[in-house]
Amino acid sequence: MPVDLPTNAPSMRWRIASVTAVLVLFSILALCAALLIAVHAREDEFIDLIVAEQMEHSQQRWKVSPALASPNTPDMQLFHVAPGAAPDGVPDFLATLPRGDHELRHDGKEFHVAVRETTEGRFILAYDVEEHGERERSLWLIVLSGALMVSALTLASIYRLAGRLTRHLDRLAAGVAAGTGVAHNHPGMERELLILARALATHEARQAEQLAREREFSANLSHELRTPLASIRSDAEMLAELPAMPEAATRRAARISATVGRITALAESLLALAREGAGETREDVPLAAALRETCDALLPARSRASEDATDVCIDVPDTAMVAADPSLLRLVLRNLLDNALRHARAGEVTCTLDGSILQVRDSGPGFAADELPFVFERQFHGGGIGRLGIGLALVRHVAAASGWRAAAGNADEGGATVSVDFGESLHFRSVDRS
Question: Which of 116, 110, 152 lies closest to 128 in space, CA to CA?
C-alpha cells in the first residue's frame, strides 16, 4: 500500500547544505573572534606604550620648558597641577584619578589616562582612543561581511554538490518505485549506494521468487479443488433429477449444487485476487438483493447453532448497484454480516447506505479504543470483542484490490460499525415508471 508523504518534508539536499554553511559560518566567526580579541589586546598594549612614552617625554620637556611639554597630537591632552595647588582647568572625571594607568569612558568616548606625581607636581595625560575603536569596528564589519559571503558561497556550493550526490539516490528511489525488472545500480554511483542497490535487488529477487511460488501454489490448489467440486456438483445435480427422490431431498441437492457453484466462483475470484487483480469479471450487482441473499444463507445456520434469534434490518435502496466481481462482493458482504451476527448477541444488525458507504452495525459491545487500529489484522484477538479470525482481513484485502475503502468504528448509540466505501463503483439505476 503506498504511503502518503508529507508535503512539508525537509529536503536532505537543503539540510546538508544549510548545516554545512552554518558550521562554516560559526567556524569563521569563532576564528575571527579569537583573532580580533588578540588584536584588541595587542592594540591596548600599543596604546599603553604610546601613553607611557608620551608621559615620560612630556615630563622631561617640562623640566626644560613647560610650553614644549604638551603632546603634538590633538587626541592627547596634558594637564599639570602644581604641588599643593587646586586642579584648576582639569576635567572633573580626571581630577580625582589616583596615580597609575586607567581606562575609562566619558561622554561616549574611551580614554586611556596616565597619572604621575613628581617634585614638579601632578601630571595627567589623557588619550582619546576613539580612532582606534573605529578601526576595530571597521575590522569587525569587514570580518562579518566576509564570513557571511563565504557562508553564502559555501551554501551554494554544497547545495550544488549535494544535488549531484542525491541524484543517484533519487534514481535509486525511482527504480524501486517502478518495481522489479529495473536496474538499481548506475554508472558513477557511490559505494554506499551500490551496497544499498545490491541489497534492494536481492530483496526484490527473493520477493519475486516467493510470489511466483505462491502463485504456482494457488494455481495448483485451484486446479485440485475444481475436480472434487465438479464431482460434488455433478452428483448433486444427478440426485436432484432422480424421480423417486423426496421433494425436500431434491431441494437440498439443488442447494448443494448452487453452493458448489458459488464456491467454485469464489475460488476463481480469490485466485485472480492473489494474482494482483480485482476479480476476473465486473458487473453491476444489486446491493440490496445481494445483502438479502447473504442473510438468507447465514440466518438459518445461525438459528440452528443458537436459540437466540437476531434480526437483520436492510435499509438499502433496491436501485443501488455496485460494479464489482460478484463473487468478491458477496465475500465482502458475507464476512461483514457474519462478523456482525456473531457479536450482535440476539439483538439487531442494521445495514444502511450513506452515499457510497455501506455501514453494517451490530448491537454488541463494540470495539475497544485500543483495538480499533487492529480489527482488520489477521487472527487479531481483542479483549473486548474476542477473536476476529481472517474475515475482516479479507474484507480489507478485497476492498483495497477493488478500489474501495474499509473502516471500523463504534456507533454513537452503541455497537460496532464496519463500513465499506464503494466510491465510484456504486451508482443507482434509473427506475422505469412507464
Answer: 110
DSSP letter for 276, please: T
Q: Which of 197, 191, 158, 163 is nearest to 21 (CA)?
A: 158
Closest CA relative to residue 273, chosen from 365, 395, 378, 173: 395
The number of helices, as runs of H, and strands, as runs of E, in the chain is 8, 14
Calpha distance 340→334 (Å, rounded) = 10
The pTM for the full model equals 0.47
Q: Is the dihedral of CA 257, 273, 205, 203 positive or negative?
A: negative
**351 with 313: CB under 8 angstroms?**
yes
**Pairing relationship of beta strands 283-286 and 320-324 according to DSSP bridges:** antiparallel
Give the tens place of pLDDT for each residue, 294-304: 888 777 655 44
Calculate the alpha carbon distances from 375 to 125, 389, 394, 434 in Å. Answer: 90, 10, 11, 47
Say what the alpha-carbon torsion angle 337, 343, 345, 347 is, to the nearest 10 degrees: -50
Nearest-angstrom CA–CA distance, 266 and 269: 5
- State how far the Cα of 362 lies from the Cα of 308, in Å rounded to an integer: 15
The lowest-confidence range among 51-60, 94-103, 189-198 is 189-198
Mean pLDDT of the 85-113 span: 89
Q: Of 315, 311, 286, 313, which is closest to residue 299 (Cα–Cα)? A: 311
Listed in sequence order, the residues at least 6 apart from 5 whose beta carbon sits closer than 8 Å to its beta carbon are none
DSSP 372: G
